[in-house]
Amino acid sequence: DVVMTQSPLSLTVTLGQPASISCRSSQSLVFSDGNTYLHWFQQRPGQSPRRLIYKVSNRDSGVPDRFSGSGSGTDFTLKISRVEAEDVGVYYCMQGTHWPFTFGPGTKVNI
Amino acid sequence: EVQLVESGGGLVQPGGSLRLSCAASGFTFSTYWMHWVRQAPGKGLVWVSRINSDGGSTNYADSVKGRFTISRDNAKNTLYLQMNSLRVEDTAVYYCVRGGVDVWGKGTTVTVSS
């Protein structure tokens, strides 16, 4: 199985300041169709996961533009340009290129 | 509104069985792959199973292979997960997820305990 690692596992940020989460995969996430199926999810306390970013850098509808994704191959990053109180939660990267799909361990973001 | 609503969770003894359901609405269910993902208490997310749009192809995590069966009824817009030989380590919230992993249900809780 593809192992996804994230760093840091916990992050305390100041309101209005930037935050960055790194995600690495144990093998390339480039699929045979040329796409890279690396997605980012936010899980607020007591809620279901919500997809924020799909295929590395595409923001989902309704996701604030302070969230951005980048990377390629095996190395990816989620950035929050200015953290707001509603951004508290756990952030997961997930690969959908190789079955079984796998998630990173999660990064807990606190204010 | 696109929606997935899970049901069927509950408390069951080790070795028992449960059948989870996921009612889909607001989209053309029959054209999407569907997935089950679970989350043990205080833990991360783990893929359980997936099924293609017509039900002819399925995949399972090694941890549930031979014990769980995913299926769907496109006429009823419903996804199922039959869980047999349940173990304590199957205790989790089970989420129904649309194929593009863009839509998640609220989850149903399965507790396996004596």
User: Helix share of residues of chain A?
Assistant: under 10%
Measured by DSSP, the beta-strand proportion of chain A falls in: over 45%
Q: Label the overall shape of chain B.
A: globular
The value of Rg of chain B in angstroms is: 13 Å
Mean pLDDT of chain B: 96
Number of strands of chain B: 10
Give the SSE string of chain A.
EEEEEEEEEEE
* Largest sheet geometry of chain A: 7 strands, mixed
The largest sheet of chain B, given as strand count, sense and whether it forms a barrel, is:
6 strands, mixed
Low-confidence segments of chain A: none
- How many beta strands in the DSSP annotation of chain A? 11
Short description:
The complex is a heterodimer of chains A (about 110) and B (about 110). Helix content of chain A is about 0%, strand content about 45%. Chain A has about 110 residues and is mainly beta.
Folded structure, characterized:
- In chain A, 0% of the residues lie in helices and 47% in strands.
- Chain A is built from no helices and 11 strands.
- In chain A, β9 (89-95) and β10 (102-103) form a beta hairpin.
- Chain A is globular.
- Chain B has strands at residues 3-7, 10-12, 18-25, 34-39, 45-51, 58-60, 68-73, 78-83, 92-98, 108-112.
- In chain B, a hairpin with a 5-residue loop joins β4 (34-39) and β5 (45-51).
- Chain B starts with a strand and ends with a strand.
- Chain A binds chain B through residues 39, 41, 48-51, 54, 60, 92, 94, 96, 99-106, and chain B through 35, 44-47, 50, 59, 61-62, 95, 100-102, 104-107.
